[in-house]
Amino acid sequence: MARIFIVEDEATIREELIFLVGARAEDQIVGACGSIREAILLLPSAIPDIVLMDIELSDGQSFEIIKKLPATPFQVIFITAYEHYAIRAIKAGALDYLLKPVKQTQIYEALDRAKKIPNVLNAIQKEILLDKKSTMLVLRTLSETFFVRHSDILYCKGDGGYTTFFLEDGREITTSNTLKEYEMLLPEALFLRVHKSYLIRLNLIISYHHDGFVILKDGTRIPVSTRKKDLLMQKMTINHV
């Protein structure tokens, strides 16, 4: 069964798509929204196989969603009233491009085509995301895909729309995803965002300094924001019991 998510800002069309897709036993609607902001927030946890996506949304163009969520494994089928976006849609990695008004048969045929296209990396990543007990994280850069164990991560540093992972073996991997996204993906029992720019693995802390920073086992000094101090102390107490 394919997991389908719909991004469409016109409520009437969105409801029609939900009805048409939901009527098929082989498809499951896992979410729907009408803006870029909502899509970026909801898609990582919905973990769809296929996203039906309008291009012109109330808060911008949906290409921004793909740009912001490159690590989220799903196929994209664009549904739009504007033919001139076709080339850009293909460059963005869209599987299909449907012009409004869209017929029921066109939607079903596009969904069926999407299911036939193998995507091994996406399948592996989806299995990891759906497994709540998974100890792996998928990191994608422009040129490579890395499968990283939680236990390999020392800490993460955010810089605007980018996050750099510092690993035990000395590697540094930078992705075009925000620190907030990884904060949601990594288990809160093991990791804590101690500062707006830093997410650390708790069992690597060897000391906390009241000047507002921690020292990790490799000697790295990480700042701790004032509002995260109490939570950090609670977590450290639990982890050292």
Would you give an account of this structure?
By secondary structure, the protein is α/β, with parallel strands linked by helices. It has eight helices and 17 strands. The strands form five sheets. A five-stranded parallel beta sheet has the order 2-1-3-6-7, sandwiched between helices. Strand 16 and strand 17 form a beta hairpin.
User: What is the C-alpha radius of gyration, as a whole number of Å?
Assistant: 20 Å
CATH class of the largest domain: Alpha Beta
Biggest sheet overview: 5 strands, parallel
Number of helices: 8
Q: How many angstroms separate the termini?
A: 44 Å
Walk across the major sheet and give the strand order: 2-1-3-6-7
Order of helices and strands: EHEHEEEHEHEHHEEEEEHEEEEEH
Number of domains: 2
Q: What would you give as the CATH superfamily of the largest domain?
A: Response regulator
CATH architecture of the largest domain: 3-Layer(aba) Sandwich
Beta-strand percentage range: 25-35%
Enter the CATH topology name of the largest domain.
Answer: Rossmann fold
Low-confidence segments: none
**Structure class:** alpha/beta
